[in-house]
From TrEMBL:
Signal peptide: none annotated. GO terms for molecular function: nucleic acid binding; RNA-DNA hybrid ribonuclease activity. It comes from Linum trigynum. This is RNase H type-1 domain-containing protein. InterPro entries: RNaseH-like_sf, RNaseH_domain, RNaseH_sf. Residues 42-171 form the RNase H type-1 domain. Pfam families: RVT_3.
């Protein structure tokens, strides 16, 4: 970088080192990865589901963002530093908000299963811990960038998607980014196409047994 600074000095270009923006790295990475940095949906509501979890395996965040067009983005994020469960839930909300804003959300409906987080942000509960006070301030700072927002508490079973992603983040130790492919079997392996009378052969008794519980006849 120093070499480039010297080379470019003759063109009257000022060089300044980039400041640390650790809190923004995740949001920028996701937004750039999906190519949505400039794709804003005007006057339409986005939905954000968040959850955080902390335990012996570390802390993680689960984030589910649904665009107005119905496209769903899932993020499972592992925190490098140990955090309490409440802090993890706040950090999950903070990360989700940063990503949603960078993706172009201006109207946002936010869901969290943490009654503490929801009520402290809405100022129904008093914030007594200094660490949480800073996080509440950071959350409100991002909310102020939105045209409109709504924060709602939901039951854990209604937030199972984000909850599962937060637990996935701490389930295994790994370095760097990681992609996980989830597949679903379309049908049980034993389900085979029905055979009509003209195509019945030695497989037919097996198909009858598997599909209709018809016991094959024994031939002497």
């Amino acid at each position: 970088m120093t070499k480039w600074a010297v080379e470019l000095s003759e063109y009257d270009i000022a060089y300044a080192p980039r400041p640390s923006i650790k809190g923004q790295v995740l949001a920028d990475f996701i937004a750039e990865g999906f190519g949505l940095s400039d794709a804003k949906e005007e006057n339409e509501v986005w939905r954000l589901f968040v959850d955080g979890a902390a335990g012996k395996g570390g802390a993680g965040a689960g984030i589910v963002i649904e665009t107005p067009t119905g496209v769903v983005h899932e993020i499972s994020h592992r925190f490098l530093e140990l955090k309490t469960n409440n802090v993890a839930k706040y950090e999950a909300l903070l990360s989700g908000l940063k990503i949603a804003v960078n993706m172009g959300a201006s109207q946002l409906h936010i869901y969290s299963d943490s009654l503490l987080v929801v009520n402290q942000v809405l100022e129904s509960y008093e914030v007594k811990e200094e660490a949480l006070t800073k996080l509440v301030g950071a959350v409100k700072g991002i909310l102020s960038q939105l045209d409109s927002w709504k924060l709602e508490h939901v039951k854990r079973e209604d937030n199972h998607h984000a909850d599962a992603l937060s637990k996935l983040a701490t389930a295994m130790d790994f370095e760097g980014e990681r992609r996980v492919t989830v597949t679903k079997e379309a049908a049980p392996a034993y389900e085979v196409m029905a055979l009509n009378e003209e195509s019945r052969d030695w497989r037919s008794p097996l198909v009858d047994y598997l599909q209709n519980d018809v016991v094959p006849k024994m031939h002497s």
